[in-house]
Structure formats: structure tokens, C-alpha cells
Design goal:
This protein is about 25% helix and about 30% strand. It is of the alpha/beta class and about 675 residues long. It folds into five domains: about 1-80 and about 650-685, no CATH class; about 90-220, Rossmann fold (3-Layer(aba) Sandwich), CATH 3.40.50.410; about 225-315, Immunoglobulins (Immunoglobulin-like, Sandwich), CATH 2.60.40; about 320-530, Rossmann fold; about 540-610, Immunoglobulin-like, CATH 2.60.40.
């Protein structure tokens, strides 16, 4: 028998109370005055009856009541063996970490040897299951007493390039052993206990009575340098600039580390770099000539203990950037688009090329190469030009309308009104009150999302002296408002395209927004959102997936049979699903997705998670404490019962309370009867 709250057993010390009551009695002394005590001799007062228990039954009942109450509060429970008993055969789950960090020199060999040793400890009648885990867990050998079969399955384990998640392995081990009826159940966890794989751990608890043995294959120190990131930026001369970030996960600085860039299988440059201890370094490859199309590229460093992160693979290609066409009114100030032009031209991700024309020059040739059109204080009263622009937007173009002093939207044609997405009214003059401010921004909108964090930009510093009143259509969305509630930025869709309307100017004439630090990122966010621009995916992380339709071609149409060519050269047919077909990438390297119908081939670069490069380990004891619970080694685990099962088995405390109440009731009845008989006996003695 065990106790859920053994501290209450200290209450057994209260048993001294009945003993004291039965062996002592308060003595009342009677004081007699004498003129002198010199002739009296002091004699000890002795009462033999007070040195023995006069009523043993009462004494027993009172002690029993106290004992029952103490036991009830201590919540006793009995351990029930599952299945065969303590000397029975065992059920063991071998959890083997197969994440990318186990590729560090010698770790995988040590992990397999530790698994073989644990398997060799099993005897006839024992059963074993083998589970391999990384980000996900896979039961490679189901629970079996065929140890030869288990040994064969153990030799078939392979390393993955995925990240570590210890909880994933513990979860499947918990499921396997929870279904077992045997008393002796154990999990043997073999891992390098990578800290990044346990940061969110402790959410899985092993079943009651299951023990955990941890075997670590991690070294005390593990120096490692990883290629963390590569960013390709196109420059104005048609070349590119490659920024590479290195991460040193070791405790010692690295000097003169050679970093090489390879394009299309040819090394184009090597730069020596210093990286501080537990630090990072960024270097730049300048004037990189990008070949036509998508080309395999990689950045490599000198090999160390973990080879999988010594190179970063990516697809190098000219992004092409965006071409923005600014249309402005023929009359008015020539510099009205100066701030817009300068803001759009700054930045390289993506690079935006700007062309400026008068709105009267709007024709099909001007729209042919444009991704973004900015109607800056322009006029769409001409039905032909307005219709041409509407058709272009409907086909997927992005339009940004700036309603300055010369726009006159009330005189626009029907096609122009469709592009406006609402009704523009008179000019609101706020100069007499010192200007209005932007009082509300929709930070969930992609334009303002980057400004949602503290110190990321303050729009309230801008003063707006004039703007146009605007009544949005029912299908339009207002994403920014002035202090009086008037719309400042409105969005709506026309066909496949997106239109954003700004109700003030974007120069210094009606406001001072162009002089604020938020102006440049605001204009860039509007341009990217209006065009739906997405930076090309140059690589994905192991364990990631891609939808076949997204990489099969620009139209997204998937037909015929497709195969996946792995980095090792294996060709695997891609099984098509009724809905989207997803392709999963387990190993790092270059994959090819090939169409057997027309020979089209798309190359995909895959890299391991950077988390696997940080080889700092967590203490295995922390994992044991989290999985088994505090005190499990000394009490709960030894008893084989903890948590919810303890509470369930300790529910018989209430009969102890009931028996204690019955004992106290009996004690009261007996004590009352003896008390009523005591005066008669005293009278008889006196007679």
C-alpha cells in the first residue's frame, strides 16, 4: 500500500492525546492554613489508579478514530500489477533519433550501437518495438517478441535531414505502451537531446507504470559553422549582389573561413571570412552575372563535423522585378511625381523600374510591360483610355489611383468610375485647423502589416491639409481613415486585378507625408500589394511540401504523368490526387520534378532547418522529469502509479471517513453510559 499524500501521516502523532487523557487527570489542590509547618514532614502524593488505563475500550476507540482520519487524509492506494507481475517479461520501445544533427561525426554510429546494446539486453519473452523520429515519428518495427526481426529492422534505419522533435517520438511510444497489458514497460530514448528539439517539449506524459531510460550520444563540445541564408539582389546594371549569412554555433571563433559561390556547377568566387564565437557574419558577392533562366547555385564553406549545413543550395535566376508606369495629368506641376519616382527606385527586393508618361499617352504599348500603373492626379474622362486601363486591370494588373487637385473624378467616364470603386466628392480643406491626421489604420492589411510592431513607423506625424471626400462602394474596403472618419485609402477588385485609391496627394502640396520616414516603405508596400508580387521561392526546408500545380507551369495546369528525381538519382512516380497534389521533400539537395508527357523539368532546391545546426544539448534529466513528473524516480515511478491513475485508485478514502465516524459515535455512547454509572459507584464506596 502507498499513500498519495504521505505528509499527512505525521498526524499519527495526535495518538498521544488519548494516552495523556487516560493516564493523567487534573489534580485540585486544597490549601489549609497552618500557623507553622516546621513540625510537618513532606510526603509524596501517590495514586496508583492514575498510572494505569481504567477504560481500555474507550482508549482503543479513540486511538482508532484518530488513526482512521489520518489515513483517510493521506489518501492510501494499493498498487495493482498489470498483466503478469513484477517478474514478468518486458515490453520495450526503442526510440532512435534520426534527425539531421545525428549526422555530426560519430553520433549516428553511437546511436545505432546503443540501440543494439539495448536490444541485446532483452531475454526470451520480452517484446520490443523500434521507432525512428525526427520532426515526425515512424514505427519501423511493431511490438514483437521476434528479436531477430527487430535487429533486422534496426539495421534498416536511415538518417534524415529533418529537424528534431523529441515529443514526436515520445508520443508514439506512449501510444504503443498504453495498449500493453504487461507490468514491466520501458522506453529507451537514444538521442543527442538537441536543445532546439526540446524547447517546446514536456507536453507528452508516458502512461502509468512506464519507465524511461535515456542514452545521450552528444559530445560536451561540438563546433559547427552553418551557411544560414543567401539573399539575391538585382542591381541596375543587370547583375546581382548575393548576401550570405554564416552562423557559428561553436564556442570558438573561426578565422579565414573560405566561403565559395558556385553557379551551374562552376565556382565563380571564394571569400575568406571571420566568424566570432556563437556569432554570425555577413559577406557579399558583388557583380554576379546571372545566367538565363533558373540555375542551380550553392554557397559552401570548409567542411566540419556536420556536413549537411556546410552548403546552402538555391535556384539563381533574374527576378525581373516590377515595371511601374506613372500616369500624370498634362497640366499642373512637372515635379508632382518626383517623390513617387524616387521612392519606387530605391530598393532591390524587388527592383522597381519606373516609367513616367502623361495620361494622354496611355496606349496598349505603354501597358504591355507594366505590372503597376499609378494614376497620379490624372484624368480618366476619355472613355477610350479609361476602357483600355479597365481591361488591363481586369486581366490582373495593379492600379494605384492618387486623387490630387487635378484629377476631377466627378467628370470621369463610366469605365473610370468603375476603376474608382466609389464616389469622390468635394475637396475637404483642413488647413484652418492645422491639418488632419491619419487616426486609424488596418494593421491586418498587407500594406500596413509591417508597421504594426512598436517603432516600425508612425503615420500620425503626417499632416493632411487637403483631401477629397469619398464614399466607397459596398464591395470596397477602407484600410485607412482621417481623424474625422473620412476614408484615406480604399481597396477593391476589378476582374482579376486590384485597385487602391488614395484620397490625397503624394507630394508636398496637400500634405507632408512625402517628408516622413514611413513614406518610402508605404509606397513600396502599396506597389507590392497592388501587383500581388511574391518573391520567388529559391529553396525550401526539408520536410516542406510544394503543390504540383504551383511548379508545373505558369498556368498551373497539371496533366499527364510526373516523376520526382531525388538528389541520389532515384526516380519516383508522383501519385496524382483528386484535389491538389503535394510533393514532400525529405532530404537536402536538388530535386527535379519531371513531366513524362512533354519533358518539362522543374528543379527544386532543398536545405535542412537551421535549428539542426545548433548542437547545444539539453540535460537528459530534464526530459525525464518532464515526461515522468517530479518525484517519479523516488515514489511515483517506483510504485507504477501516478497522476490521474493515483487519484482514481485512491478514491476508497471515503470508507475510512465513514468508519471513523462510526467509531466516534460508538465511543460517545460508551463514554456516556460509564459517566452515568460513575456517581453510583462513588456513593457505594463512601458508604
Amino acid at each position: 500500500m502507498s499513500f498519495l499524500v504521505p505528509a499527512f501521516l505525521a498526524g499519527l502523532g495526535v495518538l498521544l492525546v488519548p494516552v495523556i487523557i487516560h493516564l493523567t487527570q487534573r489534580q485540585r489542590s486544597q490549601v489549609t492554613a497552618f500557623p507553622s509547618l516546621m513540625f510537618l514532614r513532606k510526603a509524596p502524593f501517590k495514586t496508583t489508579n492514575r498510572r494505569r488505563i481504567r477504560h481500555p475500550l474507550l482508549f482503543f476507540l479513540r486511538c482508532a478514530a484518530i488513526t482512521l482520519l489520518v489515513l483517510a487524509f493521506a489518501r492510501p492506494f494499493f498498487v495493482t500489477d498489470r498483466g503478469e507481475g513484477t517478474g514478468a517479461a518486458r515490453d520495450v520501445v526503442l526510440l532512435v533519433d534520426a534527425s539531421a544533427s545525428l549526422a555530426y561525426e560519430g553520433r549516428w554510429t553511437s546511436a545505432l550501437q546503443s540501440a543494439r546494446d539495448a536490444l541485446a539486453e532483452l531475454t526470451e519473452g520480452d517484446r520490443v518495438a523500434i521507432v525512428q523520429f525526427s520532426e515526425e515519428a515512424e514505427e519501423r518495427v511493431a511490438l514483437t517478441d521476434n528479436l531477430a526481426l527487430a535487429a533486422s529492422g534496426l539495421e534498416g534505419l536511415e538518417l534524415t535531414d529533418r529537424a528534431t522533435r523529441i515529443d514526436a517520438g515520445l508520443q508514439i511510444a506512449s501510444r504503443i505502451l498504453d495498449e500493453s497489458e504487461r507490468a514491466n514497460r520501458e522506453v529507451v530514448l537514444i538521442s543527442d537531446f538537441q536543445r532546439t528539439g526540446w524547447e517546446d517539449g514536456g507536453r507528452v506524459r508516458l502512461p502509468d507504470g512506464v519507465s524511461l531510460r535515456t542514452i545521450s550520444v552528444a559530445e560536451s563540445t561540438a563546433p559547427n559553422v552553418a551557411v544560414a541564408e543567401a539573399t539575391l539582389q538585382e542591381t541596375a546594371d543587370g547583375r546581382a549582389r548575393l548576401l550570405v549569412r554564416l552562423a557559428n554555433m561553436g564556442e570558438a571563433a573561426v578565422e579565414g573561413l573560405p566561403v565559395s559561390l558556385e553557379l551551374g556547377g562552376r565556382t565563380v568566387a571564394t571569400i575568406p571570412t571571420d566568424v566570432g564565437a556563437r556569432g554570425a557574419a555577413t559577406l557579399a558577392f558583388e557583380n554576379v552575372a546571372l545566367p538565363d533562366g533558373r540555375t542551380r547555385a550553392r554557397v559552401t564553406v570548409r567542411g566540419d563535423g556536420l556536413a549537411v549545413d556546410d552548403e546552402l543550395r538555391f535556384m539563381a535566376s533574374a527576378d525581373g522585378g516590377l515595371e511601374a508606369l506613372i500616369l500624370q495629368a498634362s497640366r499642373g506641376r512637372a515635379e508632382r511625381s518626383l517623390f513617387l519616382e524616387r521612392a519606387l527606385a530605391i530598393g532591390e527586393a524587388p527592383r522597381i523600374r519606373v516609367v513616367r508618361r502623361n495620361v494622354s499617352q496611355l496606349d496598349a504599348a505603354a501597358l504591355a510591360t507594366a505590372k503597376l500603373v499609378i494614376l497620379n492626379d490624372g484624368d480618366l474622362s476619355d472613355a477610350g483610355r479609361a476602357g483600355r486601363l479597365r481591361d488591363w486591370v481586369s486581366a490582373g494588373g495593379g492600379l494605384f489611383v492618387v486623387l490630387g487637385p487635378n484629377s476631377n473624378p466627378s467628370g470621369w467616364s463610366e469605365a473610370g468610375q468603375t476603376l474608382l470603386g466609389g464616389e469622390a466628392g468635394a475637396i475637404s480643406d483642413q488647413s484652418s485647423r492645422g491639418g488632419s491626421r491619419l487616426s486609424w489604420l488596418d494593421y491586418d492589411h498587407p500594406v500596413f502589416e509591417v508597421f504594426s510592431t512598436p517603432r516600425s513607423g508612425d503615420f500620425s506625424e503626417s499632416r493632411f491639409f487637403r483631401f477629397r471626400s469619398f464614399t466607397p462602394a459596398a464591395e470596397s474596403r477602407t484600410v485607412a481613415r482621417f481623424e474625422g472618419g473620412e476614408p484615406a485609402l480604399i481597396e477593391h477588385t476589378v476582374g482579376e486585378g486590384r485597385v487602391l485609391v488614395w484620397t490625397s496627394s503624394l507630394d508636398r502640396f496637400w500634405n507632408d507625408l512625402a517628408l516622413q520616414p514611413v513614406f518610402l516603405p508605404f509606397v513600396h508596400r502599396v506597389a507590392l500589394h497592388a501587383t500581388g508580387y511574391r518573391e520567388p521561392d529559391r529553396w525550401i526546408t526539408t520536410g516542406g511540401v510544394l503543390e504540383l500545380g504551383a511548379i508545373a507551369g505558369e498556368d498551373g495546369e497539371v496533366s499527364g504523368e510526373w516523376v520526382l528525381v531525388t538528389p541520389s538519382g532515384d526516380r519516383r512516380p508522383i501519385e496524382r490526387a483528386e484535389g491538389p497534389t503535394w510533393i514532400e521533400f525529405d532530404k537536402a539537395g536538388f530535386y527535379e520534378v519531371e513531366s513524362l508527357e512533354d519533358g518539362r523539368t522543374v528543379t527544386v532546391a532543398v536545405n535542412p532547418s537551421l535549428d539542426e545546426s545548433d548542437l547545444v544539448a539539453v540535460a537528459p534529466e530534464r526530459v525525464e522529469e518532464a515526461v515522468l513528473g517530479a518525484g517519479s524516480a523516488s515514489g511515483e515511478a517506483a510504485s507504477g502509479v501516478d497522476g490521474e491513475e493515483q487519484t482514481r485508485q485512491a478514491e476508497f478514502w471515503w470508507p475510512l471517513i465513514l468508519v471513523a465516524l462510526l467509531v466516534l459515535g460508538a465511543e460517545s455512547i460508551i463514554a456516556n453510559r460509564w459517566t452515568r454509572r460513575r456517581p453510583a459507584s462513588r456513593l457505594a464506596q463512601s458508604a
